[in-house]
Amino acid sequence: MKLRNRKHLVVTDTDYGAVLLDSKSGQYWQLNPPGAVIVRTLLDGEGPDEAIRRVTERFDVETERATTDVHALIDAMRSAGVVEK
Asked: For the chain, which residues make up each domain, given as ranges?
């Protein structure tokens, strides 16, 4: 998996997680704290398995739930044209 338009993606921390901005398209997403960890992991060049590990390490969440959440966010980002396989 790789992030398309990576140089156009900007993540800014907020009091409630983060905001992901695609400065090329103008689209943006409000991310909760686990979502922010997932996106930062992907921007670091890591894949879903590492994102799942980081989420379960930082938050009180079961691996099964983290797996579902990670893949749901990746699917949403893929639909938005930000992530491609």
From this structure: 2-84
Entry pTM: 0.85
d(CA 83, CA 2): 6
**How many residues would you count in the chain?**
85
Q: What own/partner pairs with CB < 8 Å and gap ≥ 24 does 56-65 have?
A: 58/33, 58/34, 59/33, 59/34, 61/34
Q: Which residues of the chain have pLDDT under 70?
A: 1-6, 84-85
> What gap in Å lies between CA 84 and CA 34, rounded to an integer?
21
Q: How many other C-beta atoms can be found within 10 angstroms of the C-beta atom of residue 13? A: 12
Beta-carbon neighbour count of residue 74 at 10 Å?
20
Contact indicator for 28, 11 with CB cutoff of 8 Å: no
| DSSP per-residue codes, 24-35 | TT--EEEE-HHH
